[in-house]
Amino acid sequence: MTPPARRAALTEGPITRTLLLFSLPILGANVLQSLNASVNAVWVGHFLGESAFAATSNANLILFFLLGVVFGIGMATTIMVGQTVGAHDIPEARRVVGTGLGFFVVISLLVAIGGFIATPAMLRAMGTPHDAQPYAIEYLRIIFIALPAMYLYTFLGMTLRGAGDSRTPFVFMLVSVILDIALNPLFIFGLGPIPRMGIAGSAVATLIAQTGTLLALLVWLYRKKYFLCIHRNELRLLVPDVAILKSLLAKGLPMGAQMVVISSSAIIMMSLVNRHGSQTTAAFGAASQLWTYIQMPALAIGSAVSSMVAQNVGAKRWDRVAGIGRAGVLTNFALTGTLVLIIYLFNRAALALFLGSDSSAIGIAQHLNHIVVWSFLLFGVTFVMFGVVRATGAVMLPLVVLIISMWLVRYPFAALLEPVIGADAIWWSFPVGSLVSLGITTVYYRRGTWKKAHMLPATPPPVAAVEPVV
User: Fold this and answer.
1) How many angstroms separate the CA atoms of 136 and 288, rounded?
2) How many folded domains does the chain comprise?
């Protein structure tokens, strides 16, 4: 089957315009996902108290950590699908999807079961405040029940983006968010035969919304006869192809490990924050909600860059790769810089959405925002460069950079200076880590050894001269 023109569009046309149009639905989906989490946090923070809000902050960090366990396989599938679609090798793309999907289902179920059982132990290990632990256990265990649906929906969305379709994941994310936002107050406070569930109700709303949206997406894909769908007579594709699985694991595990490094670092940092009490934890949780929005343009652009570069590598259009990187950096400065400016101008008002204008934690949150927010510009540049190099199959350097900046720089900086300058050591560790990460990544990108990497097991791409992004 010859793919429609729009699936090959990432290898054609003006680079900046193509990147922007492809990344906007990804950004929109990220905004919707974060808006959903933020609205849920508003319900919890305003009506269930600071202890419940601190509980969701701790629980969501664990969820993000476990997402990293399977994220890498999804990202590797995205890149491999992108390269095969760029090369117009649709049968190979379907084999990649089948192998990834079969493996993904098994792993997501194992993670969900293990996480459900280990919830109390994980929260205790994080040093979750005692008054927040019962809320966190109640909330997180229901989230683990929803985890397979959440993971499978994420996998499908990443696969579609690898094929050049960022609009469909956005549309279904919109459906999911509308459902979740509508159901949250219903299950938190109860109505008619639905009992009042409190913080557990927020998790139940997520479970229903994610599962329903996943089923709707599957029905839509099969009714549209999407070219990557696997049918009854093709179930053999779900049995892992050994060569493809080896490549997915070799490339996916380091990318998944990147998520684990980020999330485990966040958990460790949260353990430092928790030492300063529930108010500081709540302040950090509220600021983190805003940070999620600030990071979204960089994450969306980095993901779009990976898909674009992957398709161009598959199509052997190495002449476009450097331009994609430059366009990504410039777009990041424009979008992320705008959000950074908005947060500095409306810092207290934005934080009050989560904490309430009379919260005693809001002053702490304002202060830490002043120290941290500007550093997300640096994060954006780093993430764009990560997006370029990982799309060729060079996945180890980003992992090494994250280990150095987050485990060997950020945490030691915070832990060593905390006795001297208090919680400010935690806040300053974020820009310090970002500076180190950007410096190392820039040196690696300029050396260009990542151009020799390859993703697909049989056909490594040719080396071509590629100019540095920065």
Assistant:
1) 17
2) 1
